[in-house]
Amino acid sequence: MALFLASMLVFASGTILFLKITNVLYRVVDWVPTNVVDEVHTYAGFVISGLAVIHIYLNWPTLKSYFKLLKR
After folding, report:
1. Lowest mean pLDDT among 9-13, 26-30, 40-44
2. In CA terms, which of 1, 26, 28, 61 is 20 to 30 Å from 37?
3. Is 25 within 8 Å of 19 (Cβ atoms)?
C-alpha cells in the first residue's frame, strides 16, 4: 500500500512539474510552489526505490519460482 501511495505521489508531482515546465495549463498549477513539488517528487522517488527493494527481498522465493517456470 505504501508503494502504491508513493507512486501516486510521484505521478501527481511529476505531472505538475511537467505542466509547469512546458507551460501547459500553467495557470491551473501556478498556485503550487515548484520547489515544494520538486522535493516531494524527489523524496517520494527515494521511498519508491527503497520499498521496491524491500518488496523484491520479501518475495524473492516466489520470484525465483517464476523464473524457473520461464526456463522450461
Report:
1. 26-30
2. 1
3. yes
> How many CA atoms within 13 Å lie on the side-chain side of 8?
5
User: Rounded to an integer, what distance in angstroms lies between the CA atom of residue 40 and that of residue 34?
Assistant: 10
For the record, the C-alpha cell of 72 comes out as 522450461
CA 58 and chain centroid, separation: 20
Residue 16 pLDDT grade (very low, low, confident, very high; cuts 50, 70, 90) = confident
Distance in angstroms (rounded) separating the CA atoms of residues 39 and 48: 14
Q: Which three cell numbers stand for residue 30?
A: 501556478
Strand, coil or helix: 72: coil
Q: Is 16 exposed, middle or buried (0-12, 13-18, 19+ CB in 10 A)?
A: buried
